Amino acid sequence: MTPPVSSDTPARGPDIFARVRFVMVNPTHPGNVGSAARAIKTMGFHDLHLVAPADPDILRQPEAIALASGAGDILDQARTHATLADALGPATLAFALTARARAMGPPPCDIREAAAQSATELARPDTRIAIVLGTERTGLSNEDITLCQRVCHIPANPAYSSLNVSQALQLAAWEMRYALLPLAGEARLPDTHARHDPGTDPASSERVQAMLDHFEQALVAVRFLDPRHPKKLLPRMRQMWTRNRLSTDEVDMVRGMCTAMIRSAGHATAGAARTAPTGLSDEHEHALSPDRHV
């Protein structure tokens, strides 16, 4: 088996994601660690580091494994460190994620600015980025922040800006991924692998006109349209359908709806004929007539 690539080995191209490290300082909840592993894996990263976790076996706790939900490999590869300085070893640019404004320390930026700056830095093969998050209860200490080059904020609701640490990590990983995709040569939208769905092709004029005729029949059947007094209903309906450039699937869907409308109207008329009492007044006969004016 080929040994895994060390996260301390510079990578290029698609492996640019290997040069981004996520560091959790003093994590206390196994569930947050598992959620963090899942969060970074969904965004294409894999380098998770813990600093002095409250439980030395936090990576192997059942809650961590359960909430990793398919990202167990990230937990298996995660490393623990005694100090943040050790965890930041190879990093050339570290961002300290915090919700609080800091009067002293590195210059601040928001998470999108941090991602853009990281993309610029990672264009060079000798750079490494670290995203540092603090404890669930108190965040990062001032001493932790002094080890980083920038303070980074997520612009959340100022009246309630406290994010769960795994949620903050997910947002950071997303912003980093979005900024790095051009460097990695990856698309931002899912690839259809050139598969073509013929149902999405524009419907021909002939098919649209046949649908419109069918639609008219359905409107008459459900007594929405009085063919003796159509007024401007039909031209407006036709204009509504034709200006939207329907696909073949959409035409077929509308025609299926028309068939169901006509069938339902027929059943309703038959049922009314079976249950109608004799000696209907002229007013009731007019109400039941399919030719009544709408």
TrEMBL record:
Domain of life: Bacteria
Family note: Belongs to the class IV-like SAM-binding methyltransferase superfamily. RNA methyltransferase TrmH family.
Region of interest: Disordered: 269-294
Name by which UniProt lists this protein: RNA methyltransferase
One Pfam match: SpoU_methylase
One annotated GO biological process: methylation
Organism field: Castellaniella daejeonensis
Segments forming domain tRNA/rRNA methyltransferase SpoU type: 20-173
Biased composition (Low complexity): 269-279
Keyword Chloroplast included in the entry's annotation: no
Annotated SUPFAM superfamilies: alpha/beta knot
UniProt keywords, alphabetically: Methyltransferase, S-adenosyl-L-methionine, Transferase
Transmembrane spans: none
PANTHER family in UniProt: TRNA (CYTIDINE_URIDINE-2'-O-)-METHYLTRANSFERASE TRMJ, TRNA/RRNA METHYLTRANSFERASE
Entry keyword Ribosomal protein: no
GO molecular function: methyltransferase activity
Biased composition range(s): Basic and acidic residues: 281-294
